[in-house]
Design brief:
Oligomer: heterodimer
Low-confidence stretches of chain B: 6-11, 19-30, 32-36
Largest sheet of chain B: 2 strands, antiparallel
CATH topology of the largest domain in chain A: FAD/NAD(P)-binding domain
Distance between the termini of chain A: 74 Å
CATH class of the largest domain in chain A: Alpha Beta
EC number (chain A): 1.3.5.1, 1.1.5.-
Helix content of chain A: 25-40%
Order of helices and strands of chain B: HHHEE
CATH architecture of the largest domain in chain A: 3-Layer(bba) Sandwich
Transit peptide (chain A): 1-39
Strand content of chain A: 15-25%
Structural class of chain B: mainly alpha
Binding site for FAD (chain A): 66, 69, 88-89, 95, 97, 102, 218, 272, 437, 453-454
Organism (chain A): Danio rerio (Zebrafish)
Number of strands of chain A: 24
Number of helices of chain A: 16
Subcellular location (chain A): Mitochondrion inner membrane
Largest interface: A-B, 51 and 36 residues
Number of helices of chain B: 3
Mean pLDDT of chain B: 66
Distance between the termini of chain B: 62 Å
Number of strands of chain B: 2
Helix content of chain B: 25-40%
Number of domains of chain A: 3
């Protein structure tokens, strides 16, 4: 009874203090974590705000994000002896990496004779020669070592009869620079490679003494004189603000699929890292390259396999017509993914979509015999019932083109250091690193090959840790930081917490998503994109009129969703404006009015006698986009692609050619 | 003080009360309509066992396993490719993308 009374007394005092006492007094209450061990040097400061308690922490390195790349970087740094903090808004095993169930590519040579240089060629070709060949060289050369390292950490890859890692054919991989047939390079863990990777890395990271700050939402970078000195974050559990001062900051926050109405990403994929970097005045690279899949279930966002169409499924518009016959008379529904996506989008734009909003089409499978369907595609009736609520033997599945991956992100060099481009040269931003889907090294270029993104995570997560270990030593004294650093972020937080306009966060978000889905999706032409840019500008301005409802500070999800919407907006405007400016078709960015690739030479003809086009007139270059957060205006610059590999003798660079499969 | 008492009784009794309510609702819903009037109406369906937490775990092990569409290979070894510990069911990459249960996981 005494214990219960004591517990209820504590409960009671917490209830009272939140309602009746003014905000200033809350600075004296107990913080939710106890300061012990290495966290002993966390100090409360009032230099930033006298309304919000701000706690200062000092570390050697801070990693923002705890997915595959973030965890690899965090424990790589701890292993090297750095005092590392990992700040994440989700529990590490809930990051979106857990949903990546495909395999991981590596030229181990277990199924046939293989060479990482052939993997290098496939990746360069897949990126449509927009990938930086030094980064691709680094990734494919490190791939076998990375996979073996994961296996040594305990990741249970599937095995062949003699105990080697089993590799299967997947993701456009070939032998002998495209001339030797299909390569078997994809390693997997039963059906859940990403899940297993994340759990393996998390388990491994607990061996080292990384300090995890779970459910801390990173607000902004602390930049001073062009150098990154740390991160400021909101603790969602008790509403306190924390400044993590560190000499090295690694951003591994993932992609921004949620800018589109239909995407396979979790609700938490909101491009926080890209937005933090944009607000710091640094560029983001190649954001217009977004990978789509034609048949994603409407509303749910999971993708239906191409096998459905391979087994005889057909795409139907509102008139019941098999519209693919018009767009691809020979291949019909088995045309390539981008043709199918574009045809579906054209049908929807011309008003022949289905549903109350006429914004998707139907995938019909009920004309196939049910036993054949169950035998060839086991589990599809379950999938259709769970995600679409339809009985696949009676009704069609509603589908529309869906976003799956963002090739673009924060520009880095092959070592993982964030770069800016000034006066014709790459300049490293001291103290800032990026890896994973948030970074753009750029290995995927204009199009990502299957099973390469999990490899990207581990290789560049490790690369960031190695670069920091090379440049820096643990325990170095931190350079002084202004006492009011992070003031603007806290002011913005306060403004969003008490926002009292007229449109809710969810309405503005839906407007943005629908605009992006109809204007910046698969079907891109000049008029559609320009119209989209104008609409996005007005949606951006409507953020000034936002209304939030929850005025508390403890676990205020309304506030966090609003901050995430601000981040999504910055990503969305950069995506659509970069797409409008790029007047060519390359990889995932396909335009109807400019159907060809525009390189410095015309590679479909012999090079002799051709005049090299100047940098301004061709499009084999990276887009760097800057945004002014006040107005939402985007400025674009361009940066050349790195065409030389790290070691020309070891691995010759691949000269550009026409990409055909 | 009354507020605190309400809070602590609510906190303590909440878990047990919820289970209690659930079990009464279950049994109440399962009684056929004419039960109270005591007529000769036959039960259309047999009375189901109330799903108390204990009863729930008494479900047959085999019942849940047979519902799984993708069968386990014997010893987890794929008979055609001799892959140990690989994906269940047909080869996921047979259509060019990574397929599982009709969903495309990677492409």
């Amino acid at each position: 009874m005494a214990a219960v009374c004591a517990a209820s007394r504590v409960l009671g005092t917490k209830i009272l203090s939140c309602k009746s006492l003014p905000a200033v007094c809350q600075a004296n209450r107990q913080l939710h974590f106890s300061i012990y061990g290495k966290r002993g040097d966390a100090k409360i400061s009032d230099g930033v705000s006298n309304q919000y308690p701000v706690v200062d922490h000092e570390f050697d390195a801070v990693v923002v994000g705890a997915g595959g790349a973030g965890l690899r970087a965090a424990f790589g740094l701890s292993e090297a002896g750095f005092n590392t903090a990992c700040v994440t808004k989700l529990f590490p095993t809930r990051s979106h990496t857990v949903a990546a169930q495909g395999g991981i590519n590596a030229a181990l040579g277990n199924m046939e004779q293989d060479d990482w240089r052939w993997h290098f060629y496939d990746t360069v070709k897949g990126s449509d020669w927009l990938g930086d060949q030094d980064a691709i060289h680094y990734m494919t050369e490190q791939a076998p070592a990375a996979v073996v390292e994961l296996e040594n950490f305990g990741m249970p890859f599937s095995r062949t009869d003699d105990g080697k890692i089993y590799q299967r054919a997947f993701g456009g991989q070939s032998l002998k620079f495209g001339k030797g047939g299909q390569a078997h390079r994809c390693c997997c863990v039963a059906d859940r490679t990403g899940h297993s990777l994340l759990h393996t890395l998390y388990g491994r990271s607990l061996r080292y003494d990384t300090s995890y700050f779970v459910e801390y939402f990173a607000l902004d970078l602390l930049m001073e004189d062009g150098e990154c000195k740390g991160v400021i974050a909101l603790c969602m559990e008790d509403g306190s603000i924390h400044r993590f001062r560190a000499k090295n900051t690694v951003i591994a926050t993932g992609g921004y699929g949620r800018t589109f109405f239909s995407c396979t990403s979790a609700h938490t994929s909101t491009g926080d890292g890209n937005a933090m970097v944009t607000r710091a005045g640094l560029p983001c690279q190649d954001l217009e390259f977004v990978q789509f899949h034609p048949t994603g279930i409407y509303g749910a966002g999971c993708l239906i396999t191409e096998g459905c169409r391979g087994e005889g499924g057909i795409l139907i518009n509102s008139e019941g017509e098999r519209f693919m016959e018009r767009y691809a008379p020979n291949a019909k529904d088995l045309a390539s993914r981008d043709v199918v996506s574009r045809s579906m989008t054209i049908e929807i734009r011309e008003g022949r979509g289905v549903g109350p909003d006429k914004d998707h089409v139907h995938l019909q499978l009920h004309h196939l015999p049910p036993q054949q369907l169950a035998a060839r595609l086991p589990g599809i009736s379950e999938t259709a019932m769970i995600f679409a609520g339809v009985d696949v033997t009676k009704e069609p599945i509603p589908v529309l083109p869906t976003v799956h991956y963002n090739m673009g992100g924060i520009p880095t060099n092959y070592k993982g250091q964030v770069i800016t481009y000034k006066d014709g040269q790459d300049h490293v931003v001291p103290g800032l690193y990026a890896c994973g889907e948030a970074g753009c090294a750029s290995v995927h270029g204009a199009n990502r090959l299957g099973a390469n993104s999990l490899l990207d995570l581990v290789v560049f997560g490790r690369a960031c840790a190695l670069t920091i270990a090379e440049i820096d030593t643990p325990g170095e004294k931190l350079s002084p930081l202004k006492p009011n650093a992070g003031e603007a972020s806290v002011a913005n937080l306060d403004k969003m917490r008490y926002a009292n306009g007229s449109t809710r966060t969810s309405e503005i978000r839906l407007n943005m998503q629908k605009t992006m889905q109809s204007h910046a999706a698969v079907f891109r032409t000049g008029d559609v994109l320009k119209e989209g840019c104008v609409k996005m500008e007005s949606v951006y301005k409507s953020m000034d009129d936002i209304k939030t409802f929850d005025r508390g500070i403890v676990w205020n999800t309304d506030l966090v969703e609003t901050l995430e919407l601000q981040n999504l907006m910055l990503n969305a405007v950069q995506t659509i404006v970069s797409a409008e400016a790029r007047k060519e078709s390359r990889g995932a960015h396909a335009r109807e009015d400019f159907k060809d690739r525009v390189d410095e030479y015309d590679y479909s003809k012999p090079l002799q006698g051709q005049v090299k086009k100047p940098f301004e007139q061709h499009w084999r270059k990276h887009t760097l986009s800057y945004v002014d957060p006040e107005t939402g205006k985007v400025t674009l610059e361009y940066r050349p692609v790195i065409d030389s590999s790290l070691d020309a003798e070891d691995c010759a660079a691949i000269p550009p050619a026409i990409r055909s499969y | 003080m009354s507020l605190l008492r309400v809070c602590c009784t609510a906190a303590r009794g909440f878990a047990s009360r919820r289970v209690f309510l659930e079990s009464t609702m279950n049994t109440a819903g399962l009684r056929p309509a004419g039960y109270a009037s005591g007529g000769v109406t036959k039960d259309k369906e047999p009375l189901k066992k109330a799903k108390t937490p204990q009863g729930r775990f008494d479900m047959e092990e085999t019942e849940s396993k047979s519902k799984d569409v993708l069968e386990r290979f014997p010893d987890d070894v794929n008979p055609e490719t001799k892959e140990k510990g690989g994906p269940r069911g047909p080869e996921p990459t047979r259509y060019g993308d990574w397929e599982r249960k009709g969903r495309c996981i990677d492409f």
